[in-house]
Amino acid sequence: MRMKSPTRWAVLCLLALAPVSIALANGNAELKFDEIREQQEEIRLDVLDGDDAYSGLSKRERNELVQRQDRLLALIEGRDTLLDLDEDGRTEAINTLEWIRATLEDAEQERLVCTREKTIGSNRITRVCMTVAERERKREEANRAWQRGSVCSEGRGCGGG
Questions:
Q1: Burial class for 126, CB neighbours closer than 10 Å (0-12, 13-18, 19+)
Q2: Was domain 6-130 assigned CATH 1.20.120?
């Protein structure tokens, strides 16, 4: 059996995760869990064996990676696709896979984070996905707007003129 070089193996794993990330961002509910299970088991074995491809991960990151894989594998146990999970389960699976991808790629700011949000004035709950960088930018913009104060607090009156 031919041994793969650590760098080549890491690149292959990251390339394998890329379609998962794209499929999740596009809401592809037909994502096959068999492929994910196989992929996660291969990554797990290499991480636990101390493969050179993952030498950049700290012990804490490796432990967290294995714990998140455990939760993910338990979540998708006995299921075939995202459609087999409820909305909360889908969101958790997406977020966990994105965390794993971002950790392996060392791309925390590009990690996709999904939340389920209720639109004001509606009972409908939607999944909203943004990168960590986008979420931080929106949070900073909201803080700046709050610190500037609103038009109402400046004595100009609110809404009705």
A1: exposed
A2: yes
